[in-house]
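Journal club side-thread
Mid-discussion, someone asked how the predicted structure for our own chain would compare to the paper's figures. Pasting it here so we can look after the session.
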Amino acid sequence: MASQQEAINLWRDLVGKLQPRQALRRGLVGDGAGNVAVTNRPGWIWIRYEEELNRLSWVRCFQGYPPEDTPVIIGKWHPEDDYEQVLGVYWGPYSMGMSDYQYAFHKVPIHGDTHHGNYGSDPAYIDYANLVMGRVAPTNPDSLFVTVESFVWADGAETKDYDGGTLDLTAEVPAGAGHKYLLVYFDMDSASVTYESGDVVALPASPSIPALDNVAAIPLAVIRMYNGQTAITIDDTWQRKLILGHVGGAGRVLEKAIVHEGDVVTRNGEIVWGI
Protein backbone atom coordinates (compact mmCIF):
# COMPACT_ATOMS: atom_id res chain seq x y z
CA MET A 1 0.00 0.00 0.00
CA ALA A 2 1.33 3.45 -0.93
CA SER A 3 2.31 5.79 1.87
CA GLN A 4 0.53 9.11 2.44
CA GLN A 5 3.44 11.05 0.89
CA GLU A 6 3.46 8.83 -2.19
CA ALA A 7 -0.28 9.41 -2.61
CA ILE A 8 0.25 13.18 -2.36
CA ASN A 9 3.01 13.05 -4.99
CA LEU A 10 0.79 11.05 -7.37
CA TRP A 11 -2.00 13.59 -6.89
CA ARG A 12 0.34 16.49 -7.65
CA ASP A 13 1.57 14.80 -10.82
CA LEU A 14 -2.02 14.23 -11.98
CA VAL A 15 -3.07 17.84 -11.27
CA GLY A 16 0.06 19.14 -13.00
CA LYS A 17 -0.74 17.24 -16.17
CA LEU A 18 -4.21 18.78 -16.25
CA GLN A 19 -2.95 22.38 -16.00
CA PRO A 20 -3.13 24.45 -19.22
CA ARG A 21 0.21 24.65 -20.98
CA GLN A 22 1.67 27.97 -22.09
CA ALA A 23 2.40 27.88 -25.81
CA LEU A 24 5.47 29.92 -26.74
CA ARG A 25 6.38 30.75 -30.32
CA ARG A 26 9.38 32.40 -31.93
CA GLY A 27 9.23 34.99 -34.66
CA LEU A 28 10.86 37.97 -36.35
CA VAL A 29 9.61 41.53 -35.91
CA GLY A 30 8.36 43.34 -39.02
CA ASP A 31 6.72 42.55 -42.33
CA GLY A 32 10.00 42.03 -44.19
CA ALA A 33 9.59 45.32 -46.07
CA GLY A 34 10.71 47.74 -43.38
CA ASN A 35 7.40 48.11 -41.51
CA VAL A 36 7.07 47.23 -37.81
CA ALA A 37 4.02 49.09 -36.47
CA VAL A 38 0.56 48.14 -37.74
CA THR A 39 -1.09 51.24 -39.21
CA ASN A 40 -3.89 52.69 -37.06
CA ARG A 41 -3.44 49.97 -34.42
CA PRO A 42 -1.28 51.32 -31.57
CA GLY A 43 0.38 48.58 -29.55
CA TRP A 44 0.35 46.05 -32.41
CA ILE A 45 3.29 45.02 -34.60
CA TRP A 46 3.86 42.80 -37.60
CA ILE A 47 5.31 39.36 -36.90
CA ARG A 48 6.64 36.58 -39.11
CA TYR A 49 6.48 33.39 -37.06
CA GLU A 50 9.52 31.13 -37.32
CA GLU A 51 7.53 28.19 -38.68
CA GLU A 52 5.90 30.28 -41.42
CA LEU A 53 8.11 33.26 -42.28
CA ASN A 54 6.26 33.86 -45.55
CA ARG A 55 3.03 34.59 -43.66
CA LEU A 56 2.34 37.84 -41.79
CA SER A 57 0.52 38.16 -38.48
CA TRP A 58 -0.33 40.86 -35.96
CA VAL A 59 0.68 40.56 -32.34
CA ARG A 60 0.42 42.76 -29.27
CA CYS A 61 3.61 44.53 -28.19
CA PHE A 62 3.71 46.73 -25.10
CA GLN A 63 7.50 47.12 -25.23
CA GLY A 64 7.65 49.80 -27.88
CA TYR A 65 8.54 49.00 -31.47
CA PRO A 66 11.62 46.77 -31.70
CA PRO A 67 13.81 47.08 -34.81
CA GLU A 68 12.76 44.97 -37.77
CA ASP A 69 14.07 41.39 -37.79
CA THR A 70 14.56 41.35 -34.01
CA PRO A 71 13.97 37.72 -32.93
CA VAL A 72 11.33 37.61 -30.19
CA ILE A 73 9.38 35.19 -28.01
CA ILE A 74 5.59 35.41 -28.39
CA GLY A 75 2.99 34.03 -26.00
CA LYS A 76 0.67 34.91 -23.12
CA TRP A 77 1.79 36.13 -19.73
CA HIS A 78 -1.24 34.36 -18.28
CA PRO A 79 -3.41 31.64 -19.87
CA GLU A 80 -6.51 33.84 -19.51
CA ASP A 81 -5.03 36.76 -21.51
CA ASP A 82 -7.08 37.67 -24.57
CA TYR A 83 -4.15 38.03 -26.95
CA GLU A 84 -0.64 36.75 -27.46
CA GLN A 85 2.04 39.38 -27.17
CA VAL A 86 5.79 39.91 -27.41
CA LEU A 87 7.27 38.59 -24.16
CA GLY A 88 10.87 39.55 -24.88
CA VAL A 89 13.86 39.13 -27.15
CA TYR A 90 14.72 35.58 -28.19
CA TRP A 91 18.38 35.35 -27.20
CA GLY A 92 19.12 32.07 -28.97
CA PRO A 93 20.76 33.62 -32.09
CA TYR A 94 22.95 35.76 -29.83
CA SER A 95 24.11 33.09 -27.41
CA MET A 96 27.47 32.75 -29.15
CA GLY A 97 29.73 35.66 -30.01
CA MET A 98 27.46 38.41 -28.66
CA SER A 99 29.10 41.83 -28.63
CA ASP A 100 28.54 44.55 -26.03
CA TYR A 101 26.80 46.57 -28.75
CA GLN A 102 24.28 43.80 -29.49
CA TYR A 103 23.59 43.25 -25.80
CA ALA A 104 23.02 46.94 -25.11
CA PHE A 105 20.90 47.29 -28.25
CA HIS A 106 18.44 44.52 -27.39
CA LYS A 107 18.27 44.42 -23.61
CA VAL A 108 16.08 47.53 -23.34
CA PRO A 109 13.03 48.14 -25.55
CA ILE A 110 12.80 51.37 -27.50
CA HIS A 111 11.36 53.95 -25.09
CA GLY A 112 12.39 57.36 -26.37
CA ASP A 113 8.95 58.85 -25.74
CA THR A 114 9.46 58.50 -21.99
CA HIS A 115 12.55 60.76 -22.20
CA HIS A 116 10.81 63.77 -23.74
CA GLY A 117 11.49 67.14 -22.14
CA ASN A 118 7.81 68.10 -21.82
CA TYR A 119 6.21 64.72 -21.14
CA GLY A 120 7.25 61.20 -20.21
CA SER A 121 7.98 59.38 -16.99
CA ASP A 122 11.76 59.21 -17.31
CA PRO A 123 13.21 62.54 -18.52
CA ALA A 124 16.78 62.26 -19.82
CA TYR A 125 19.32 64.97 -19.11
CA ILE A 126 21.29 65.35 -22.34
CA ASP A 127 24.89 66.57 -22.28
CA TYR A 128 27.33 67.25 -25.09
CA ALA A 129 28.48 63.61 -25.14
CA ASN A 130 25.03 62.64 -26.43
CA LEU A 131 25.44 64.85 -29.51
CA VAL A 132 27.07 62.92 -32.32
CA MET A 133 28.16 65.86 -34.49
CA GLY A 134 31.74 66.78 -33.70
CA ARG A 135 31.90 64.35 -30.79
CA VAL A 136 35.40 63.35 -29.65
CA ALA A 137 35.34 59.85 -28.18
CA PRO A 138 37.62 56.95 -27.19
CA THR A 139 38.17 54.18 -29.71
CA ASN A 140 36.68 50.69 -29.32
CA PRO A 141 38.63 48.98 -27.86
CA ASP A 142 40.23 51.80 -25.86
CA SER A 143 43.61 53.07 -27.08
CA LEU A 144 45.67 56.26 -27.08
CA PHE A 145 43.74 57.40 -30.16
CA VAL A 146 40.45 59.31 -30.17
CA THR A 147 37.84 59.47 -32.90
CA VAL A 148 36.24 62.70 -34.11
CA GLU A 149 32.74 62.46 -35.58
CA SER A 150 31.74 64.34 -38.72
CA PHE A 151 29.99 67.72 -38.57
CA VAL A 152 28.98 70.74 -40.65
CA TRP A 153 30.78 74.05 -40.19
CA ALA A 154 30.43 77.56 -41.60
CA ASP A 155 33.28 79.26 -43.42
CA GLY A 156 31.96 82.79 -43.80
CA ALA A 157 28.89 82.53 -45.99
CA GLU A 158 29.81 79.00 -47.13
CA THR A 159 28.74 75.76 -45.42
CA LYS A 160 31.26 72.91 -45.45
CA ASP A 161 31.45 69.30 -44.23
CA TYR A 162 34.10 67.64 -42.10
CA ASP A 163 33.98 63.88 -42.67
CA GLY A 164 35.50 62.84 -39.34
CA GLY A 165 38.82 61.28 -38.44
CA THR A 166 41.15 60.14 -35.65
CA LEU A 167 43.90 61.68 -33.55
CA ASP A 168 46.94 59.81 -32.24
CA LEU A 169 47.72 61.19 -28.77
CA THR A 170 50.37 58.62 -27.83
CA ALA A 171 53.15 61.22 -27.81
CA GLU A 172 51.22 63.36 -25.30
CA VAL A 173 51.42 60.92 -22.37
CA PRO A 174 53.48 62.83 -19.75
CA ALA A 175 56.93 61.34 -19.26
CA GLY A 176 57.04 62.35 -15.61
CA ALA A 177 54.60 62.31 -12.73
CA GLY A 178 51.47 64.41 -13.14
CA HIS A 179 48.72 65.08 -15.65
CA LYS A 180 47.61 67.69 -18.18
CA TYR A 181 44.77 68.67 -20.50
CA LEU A 182 44.71 68.71 -24.29
CA LEU A 183 42.23 70.92 -26.10
CA VAL A 184 41.09 69.24 -29.32
CA TYR A 185 39.86 71.68 -31.95
CA PHE A 186 39.04 72.03 -35.63
CA ASP A 187 41.39 74.30 -37.58
CA MET A 188 39.28 76.07 -40.18
CA ASP A 189 42.32 77.17 -42.20
CA SER A 190 43.57 73.62 -42.76
CA ALA A 191 40.10 71.98 -42.48
CA SER A 192 41.55 69.42 -40.08
CA VAL A 193 41.39 68.42 -36.42
CA THR A 194 44.37 69.04 -34.17
CA TYR A 195 45.00 69.92 -30.51
CA GLU A 196 46.73 72.30 -28.12
CA SER A 197 48.70 70.81 -25.24
CA GLY A 198 48.59 72.27 -21.73
CA ASP A 199 51.15 72.19 -18.94
CA VAL A 200 51.76 69.12 -16.77
CA VAL A 201 50.86 69.67 -13.11
CA ALA A 202 51.29 67.42 -10.10
CA LEU A 203 48.37 65.51 -8.63
CA PRO A 204 45.95 66.38 -7.13
CA ALA A 205 46.09 69.89 -8.67
CA SER A 206 43.76 70.43 -11.61
CA PRO A 207 45.44 71.26 -14.95
CA SER A 208 44.53 74.40 -16.87
CA ILE A 209 42.69 74.08 -20.15
CA PRO A 210 44.93 75.39 -22.95
CA ALA A 211 43.95 78.68 -24.57
CA LEU A 212 43.39 78.96 -28.31
CA ASP A 213 45.21 81.81 -30.03
CA ASN A 214 43.93 80.71 -33.43
CA VAL A 215 40.77 82.73 -34.15
CA ALA A 216 39.88 80.31 -36.97
CA ALA A 217 39.41 77.42 -34.51
CA ILE A 218 36.35 75.48 -33.36
CA PRO A 219 36.92 73.87 -29.92
CA LEU A 220 35.63 70.30 -29.67
CA ALA A 221 36.83 68.50 -26.53
CA VAL A 222 39.21 68.39 -23.58
CA ILE A 223 41.29 65.22 -23.05
CA ARG A 224 43.11 64.34 -19.84
CA MET A 225 46.55 62.77 -20.24
CA TYR A 226 48.52 61.40 -17.29
CA ASN A 227 51.78 59.64 -16.57
CA GLY A 228 51.62 55.89 -17.22
CA GLN A 229 48.44 56.16 -19.28
CA THR A 230 47.86 53.24 -21.67
CA ALA A 231 44.40 54.15 -22.98
CA ILE A 232 42.00 57.08 -23.20
CA THR A 233 38.60 56.24 -21.72
CA ILE A 234 35.31 58.08 -21.54
CA ASP A 235 36.30 59.29 -18.07
CA ASP A 236 39.24 61.18 -19.63
CA THR A 237 37.09 62.98 -22.20
CA TRP A 238 34.91 66.11 -21.92
CA GLN A 239 33.06 67.62 -24.87
CA ARG A 240 33.69 71.35 -25.31
CA LYS A 241 31.97 72.13 -28.60
CA LEU A 242 30.16 75.40 -29.25
CA ILE A 243 26.45 74.90 -29.79
CA LEU A 244 25.35 78.50 -30.37
CA GLY A 245 26.54 80.62 -33.26
CA HIS A 246 25.34 83.42 -35.51
CA VAL A 247 23.86 83.58 -38.98
CA GLY A 248 24.89 86.27 -41.44
CA GLY A 249 27.40 89.04 -40.88
CA ALA A 250 30.76 89.56 -42.51
CA GLY A 251 32.90 86.62 -43.48
CA ARG A 252 36.15 85.93 -41.70
CA VAL A 253 38.23 86.05 -44.92
CA LEU A 254 40.09 89.30 -45.66
CA GLU A 255 38.51 90.66 -48.82
CA LYS A 256 40.37 93.90 -49.56
CA ALA A 257 43.08 96.25 -48.34
CA ILE A 258 42.64 100.00 -48.84
CA VAL A 259 45.49 102.49 -48.70
CA HIS A 260 44.22 105.98 -47.90
CA GLU A 261 46.23 108.91 -49.17
CA GLY A 262 45.57 112.60 -48.91
CA ASP A 263 42.11 112.61 -47.35
CA VAL A 264 43.13 110.55 -44.31
CA VAL A 265 45.98 111.43 -42.01
CA THR A 266 48.11 108.32 -41.44
CA ARG A 267 51.52 107.57 -40.11
CA ASN A 268 54.28 107.06 -42.62
CA GLY A 269 53.56 103.83 -44.49
CA GLU A 270 50.46 102.93 -42.47
CA ILE A 271 47.83 100.78 -44.17
CA VAL A 272 44.18 100.93 -43.14
CA TRP A 273 42.59 97.49 -43.56
CA GLY A 274 38.99 96.92 -44.61
CA ILE A 275 36.83 93.80 -44.58
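Post-session note: The chain is about 10% helix and 30% strand.
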